[in-house]
Amino acid sequence: MIDVRDAMVVYPGAERPALDGVSLTLSPGESVAMLGANGSGKSTLARLCNALLLPSAGTVSVDGMDTRDAEALWDVRSRVGFVQQNPENQIVGTVAEEDVAFGPENLGVPAGELRRRVDDALEAVGLAGMQRREPHLLSDGQKQRLAIAGALAMRPAYLVLDEPTAMLDGTGRAEVAAVLKTLRDEGVGILHITHQLAEAADADRLVVLSEGRIVYEGTPFGLMGEPEYAGRYGVDLPHMAVLTAELRAKGIDVPAPMLDAESVVEALWR
Amino acid sequence: MRVPVAFGQYVPVDSPIHALDAKTKMGLVAAFTAGVFMVDGFPGLAVMALVVVATVAVSRVPWHIAIRGVRALSFILAFTLLAHGLRWNPATVTLVRLGPLAVDGPGLVTGVFFAARIMLLVVGTSLLTLTTTPVQLTDGLERVMRPLEVVRFPAGEVAMMLTIALRFIPTTAAEAEKIVIAQTARGARFDEGGPIRRARAFVPVLVPLFINLFRRAEDLALAMESRCYRGGRGRTRLNASVMRPADWMTLAFATAVMIAVGVAL
Ligand SMILES: Nc1ncnc2c1ncn2[C@@H]1O[C@H](COP(=O)(O)OP(=O)(O)O)[C@@H](O)[C@H]1O
Ligand SMILES: [Mg+2]
User: Fold this and answer.
1) Lowest mean pLDDT among A102-111, A116-125, B167-176
2) What is the total count of domains within chain A?
3) Residues B83 and B143 in one domain
4) Measured between beta carbons, which residues in chain A are less than 8 angstroms from residue B164?
5) I need a labelling partner for B252 at 20 to 30 A (CA). Which of A251, B123, B186, B224 fits?
6) Which residues span the domain enclosing B63?
7) Which of B2, B223, B228 sits opposite A90 (nearest CB)?
8) Where are the alpha helices (DSSP H) in B5-41?
9) Least Cα separation, residue A59 to chain B (angstroms)
10) Is-contact A42 A115, C-beta < 8 A?
11) Is B224 on the interface with A (CB under 8 A)?
């Protein structure tokens, strides 16, 4: 389990803390979505999870290992895969397979096992057969899946993704979402930071950050029933969620909240 | 969009030379260079020339590409010839005389010898980069430099730097092109005026390019740390380049020939 407890982060020279007493857990096989306005501290929290950043106060532990423990650093980082927003900037290798191999190479995994891990990871993200493809010839969605494969090759128990779809088109988003869903089902714990509540709809839990504090923690649908509350924290609700909430506010009885237009139409006809 | 970038000079054809390991080819270049410096007469150079011609033929690198390096050096070659061949007011008998300026027979022969040696070296050594991809070269270089780690030379880190540079050349080229198009759309002209004005026109391209590069470097550092990068130590390689029996045989044979020719001729 990733266990963030009362974490506080103050950047040097900053007036207010970027994170102010945040507690959060993530278990294997669980998916947690995180939303929040720009500057609310999402990336900061993500970086705490794999010891890219250490808390100024409070603790962060991964499967019982404190991230401040220098001895456990590589163990922590291989257990927590990290994927960033920009698909271009996190690819190290000159061809796909060499990029995927980068993590386990650093861990000293021997050659035979390396090959197996690389091929498995590429397969898991739907890039089987693209071993020799040069990264700049991949679509953005493929690049982002390659980045996920690079994390998977370290055989992590958790994946932390910091707005992985923010720079992708619709197709790319769908590809990444599908991969994340499969991984969750296979037992990987997923912390998915996003700007879109629609992407968070499948999550087991939803967390909303605002000014370094957690202001909502619950089911995604719980938040969709509260459009004003969501708006206050810079969360864009899917159109249909806004519609159903407004219908309910006007006294029209629809089962709340719904994401697709079809079920809304059906409910209205009844 | 694929931006064609002419980095390196790799000629992508299949040949027995291309198939050799990069380390083998580095060894061959070293042996060849030693051989060329050891021979001290025209018969020796003739044999070396034969070796070069045969190797180029086997490598299937087109001739005009193989000798490109010579053309780039034509000035130095001409200078070598003249410096050895011309004499000012010589006391001895000379071949041709033009006022005080004279062409000296033995001097000219020496000049031809040195010029030929330079040409052979250039064509022979450039075969390394013509038949080896930059990535293979980098990997080979890492292995060859590894003994230097004893004296704290960071061979693994240097190789990693080169690899990352290679990885980002196409990306940066594509980005530069995008910025050029954007600036052109705003009325910037890159094809007008003298060299200074043209160079100045590129400032608005370079500034955003560099800002992006720094941002990239930051992200990349995070990505590398997240994936447990901690320098070259203890790193294994997916595609560790290995020298096969054919590599060892080629290297041994070529070294023997070079020593024999170098000593005998
Ligand atoms: N390296 C840094 N140095 C100083 N301040 C930072 C740094 N990174 C982020 N911050 C500040 O911390 C706050 C939270 O940032 P961040 O975690 O990036 O938020 P988010 O990812 O939600 O947009 C912001 O006010 C931001 O300006
Ligand atoms: Mg962020």
Assistant:
1) B167-176
2) 1
3) yes
4) 92
5) B123
6) 1-154+238-265
7) B223
8) 16-19, 22-38
9) 19
10) no
11) yes
CATH of the domain at A154: 3.40.50.300
For the CA of A18, the nearest ligand: 1
**B133 to chain A, closest Cα gap in Å:** 11
The phi, psi pair for A157, rounded to 5°, reads -90, -20
Q: How does pLDDT run across A41-64, given as a tens digit for each residue? A: 999 999 999 999 999 999 999 999
Q: Are residues B131 and B29 in the same domain?
A: yes
- Test B220 with A110 for CB contact under 8 angstroms: no
Q: Are A19 and B195 in contact (CB under 8 A)?
A: no
Assigned token pair, B112: 């031809």
Asked, for residue A264, whether it belongs to a domain, the answer is: no
Looking at the fold, whether B96 and B122 belong to one and the same domain comes out as: yes
Same-domain status, B39 and B132: yes
What one-character DSSP code corresponds to residue A196?
B
Atom of ligand 1 nearest to the CA of A16: 25
Confirm whether A151 is domain-assigned.
yes
Q: Are B136 and B163 contained in the same domain?
A: no
By three-state DSSP, how is residue A129 classified? coil
Give, using CA atoms, the residue closest to atom 1 of ligand 1. A11
B259 and B206 in a common domain: no
- Contact between residue B2 and residue B128 where contact means Cβ atoms under 8 Å apart: no
Choose among A144, A153, A36, A150: nearest CA to A85. A144
Q: Closest to A103 (Cβ–Cβ): which among B170, B215, B227? A: B227
The answer as to whether A239 is a domain residue is no
Nearest CB partner across the interface for B174, out of A101, A104, A136: A136
Q: Which of A43, A45, A83 to mutate to test the pocket of ligand 1 (most atoms within 8 A of CB)?
A: A43
Q: Is residue A77 part of a domain?
A: yes
My answer on whether B51 and B67 are in the same domain is yes
Per-residue model confidence as pLDDT tens for chain B (265 residues)? 333 444 457 888 889 999 999 999 999 999 999 999 999 889 999 999 999 999 999 999 999 888 888 888 888 899 888 888 887 776 766 667 777 778 888 888 889 999 999 999 999 999 998 998 887 888 888 888 888 888 988 888 888 888 888 888 888 888 888 888 888 888 878 777 788 888 888 888 889 899 989 999 999 999 999 999 988 778 888 887 788 999 999 999 999 999 999 888 8
Dist. CA A244–CA A263, nearest whole Å: 10
Stated pTM of the model: 0.81
Percent of chain B with pLDDT over 70: 95
Which whole-number Å values give the CA distances from A143 to A8, A182, B4, B75, B167, in the listed order?
Answer: 33, 18, 20, 47, 14
CA dist., res. B10 & res. B159, Å (int): 19
**B194 and B118, same domain (yes or no):** no
Count of domains observed in chain B: 2
Q: Ligand 1 site: residues with CB under 6 angstroms?
A: A 11, 14, 18, 36, 38-44
The ipTM (two decimal places) reads: 0.88
Structure tokens at A82: 């990290």
Asked if A134's CB is within 8 angstroms of B223's CB, the reply is no
**CB-CB neighbors (< 8 A) of B227 in chain A:** 77, 82, 92, 102-103, 106, 150-151, 154
Domain of A72, in residue numbers: 2-219
